[in-house]
Write a structure and sequence with these properties.
Chain A: It comes from Secundilactobacillus collinoides. Chain A: This is ABC transporter ATP-binding protein. Chain A: It is a peripheral membrane protein. The complex is a heterodimer. Helix content of chain A is 37%, strand content 25%. In chain A, the strands form 2 sheets. Chain A has a 6-stranded mixed beta sheet with strand order 6-7-8-3-9-10, with helices on both faces. Chain B has a single domain, classed as Orthogonal Bundle (ABC transporter involved in vitamin B12 uptake, BtuC), CATH 1.10.3470. In chain B, helix 7 crosses helix 9 and helix 10 crosses helix 11. The longest helix of chain B has 28 residues. The chains are: A alpha/beta, B mainly alpha. At the A-B interface, helix 2, helix 3 and helix 4 of A face helix 7 and helix 8 of B.
Chain lengths: 257, 301
């Protein structure tokens, strides 16, 4: 269980390179994720949480350092290529699904994540029973709306669908970017519970950004805090279990001071 | 109105429908306006007419027009995806360049097909009554194009293409190469527009460098009229609606010409028809037309 699956070594990420607005977002960040880790990621706005995700996913290229997947460097792989082992769910429900395509069509697209798309029939009908089964596990009526364009779904249903799509084809690494933040408290808790169940059940390796200290403490086996482009706090296992909200709060106020 | 004119309008509508279907792929599916079509249409026409004048069989001359159209789409696609030029400008650049290339292809501003073979002069089509030649040819072409596209859009590749236009960020996060999808879409779209140019030139009997002006408005009119007339449809039905919209548009033109306008007014009229159709939703809201109609047809209780 302690085999490293993803390693970031001294990663430096800049934006607006060679302009007066040049900004260094990740400043020599080091992070080793082990297979099966469920890591909650905390940090104030602008600390570099989303930059970390964009760097891992390949939306942003790095200036120095290295990113390794199972010991092999992936820094030269494009964003599209990295989707073969990586999937993500965004905060905005609009970003995760194609609004004019139906729920089933979206799922079919996700089932082929990272694969070549060829001139062969899509075989939607054959996949329908399977889609019905897995959408039913979401317990929010999604299985009744397989033929509905996702633009007509509620935000909660859309986010549940986005999460389902991200895990439909098992990813080596799952990135959740505050995926419950845009939902009402009840729906948010339900999706969080489903998320936890599925990650535990399938033993997925996951990084989850959250602003809820509660969620960060409750879920996952490891907690990291990012500040000013570096990891400033990293606890796992029993040590994380012993962590309390008060301790985290005092840690954050230390950062501000 | 004579029956002949009506039949002619149907034939014209079918031949011009290839443009509407071509533009549908970029305007509605990829969700951006592609101005390249204003250059592709005359280039398809010029290529086809010049090729026939050089003794090439009309069928192969038409295929060449499709190829040239696809090349135009490829250039626009590369400027847009790799060159990072905004799509509107990328299209205008290719459209402008196309004008010079058309003059090179034809050697002058217009070229006639007088006494030359065309697809419409094959023995079978010539045996038909007047104007039915364009209807039969148009129906054959539209049937092939529509069936091919319906198949394509239901494949893995076609679904990736639709997803790219629907939500580019999501498509990329699922490993779809969105740049390639956009280039492919522009190539297929402009290939169809080139085909439309070749068909219209053969029907008219000539090609002219200026025949591209206002083409995008005509193609858009077929799409929008089809949508306004038939409402909520599935993707496959929408493709057919474009063809019907194209025919309806020809009838609208026929009516306004009957009202006393002449062909020089056509560009103005096309623009007004399109603007009117695109503003229909606003009018509906403003005057609550749906509500009034509903009140009109439900019984009082």
């Amino acid at each position: 269980m302690t085999k490293p699956i993803l390693e970031l070594r001294n990663v430096v990420t800049k934006v607006n390179r060679n302009t007066p607005e040049e900004l260094t977002l990740l400043k020599g960040l080091n992070l080793t994720i082990n297979e099966g880790d469920f890591v909650t990621v905390l940090g104030s706005n602008g600390a570099g949480k989303s930059t970390l995700f964009n760097t891992i996913a390949g939306n942003l290229s790095i200036d120095s350092g290295d990113i390794l997947l199972r010991g092999k460097s992936i820094v030269n792989e494009s964003e599209e290529r990295r989707t073969r082992f990586l999937s993500r769910v965004f905060q905005d429900p609009k970003l995760g699904t194609a609004p004019r395509m139906t729920v089933a069509e979206n799922l079919l697209l996700a089932a082929k994540r990272g694969q070549g798309r060829h001139l062969v029939p899509r075989r939607l009908r054959k996949a329908l029973p399977h889609f019905k089964e897995i959408t039913a596990t979401m317990n929010n009526g999604l299985d009744q709306r397989l033929d509905t364009p996702t633009g007509n779904l509620s935000g909660g249903q859309r986010q549940a669908l986005s999460f389902l799509m991200a895990t439909l084809k098992r990813p080596d690494i799952l990135l959740l970017d505050e995926h419950t933040a845009a939902l009402d408290p009840k729906t948010s808790q339900e999706l969080m519970q489903t998320t936890n169940d599925r990650i535990t059940e399938e033993d997925l390796t996951c990084l989850m950004i959250t602003h809820h200290l509660d969620d960060a403490l409750t879920y996952g086996n490891r907690l990291i805090v990012i500040d000013n482009g570096q990891i400033t706090f990293d606890v796992a296992g029993d040590e994380k279990k012993r962590l309390t909200q008060e301790k985290l709060y005092s840690f954050f106020s230390d950062l501000d001071g | 109105m004579s029956i002949g004119l009506g039949v002619s309008a149907i034939g014209q509508g079918l031949l011009w429908a290839t443009l509407g279907i071509g533009l549908f792929l970029t305007f509605r599916i990829l969700d951006f306006p592609d101005m390249t079509v204003e250059g592709t249409f005359p280039m398809g026409a010029a290529t086809c007419v010049a090729a026939i004048n050089h003794g090439i069989d009309p069928f192969w001359a038409t295929i060449m027009a499709i190829g040239v159209g696809m090349l135009c789409g490829l250039v626009t696609g590369l400027l847009y995806t790799k060159g990072k030029i905004p799509i509107l400008l990328a299209g205008i650049l290719v459209m402008t360049a196309a004008y010079s290339i058309d003059l090179r292809i034809m050697g002058r501003a217009n070229l006639t097909l007088l006494n030359k073979p065309t697809l419409l002069k094959t023995a079978f089509l010539k045996s038909l009554p007047e104007y039915f030649d364009s209807i039969v040819l148009g129906m054959i072409v539209i049937a092939i194009v529509t069936i091919a596209l319906v198949y394509f859009l239901q494949t893995d590749l076609g679904q990736a293409f639709i997803a790219t236009g629907d939500n580019e960020k999501m498509a990329r996060s699922l490993g779809i190469k969105t740049d390639n999808m956009q280039i492919m879409g522009l190539m297929i779209s402009n290939g169809l527009i080139g085909l439309g140019g070749a068909l219209v030139a053969q029907n008219n009997g000539y090609a002219d460098v200026n025949m591209g002006i206002g083409i995008i408005v005509i193609a858009l009119a077929s799409i929008i009229i089809g949508e306004v007339a038939f409402g909520e449809l599935t993707m496959n039905q929408r493709l057919v609606a474009v063809t019907l919209g194209s025919i309806l548009y020809r009838f609208v033109l026929l009516v306004v010409l009957r009202l006393g306008f002449n062909t020089n007014d056509l560009q103005l009229l096309s623009a007004i028809v399109l603007a009117f159709c695109m503003m229909l939703p606003v009018f509906q809201k403003m005057f609550n037309i749906k509500h009034i109609i509903k009140r009109g047809v439900t019984s009082h209780d």
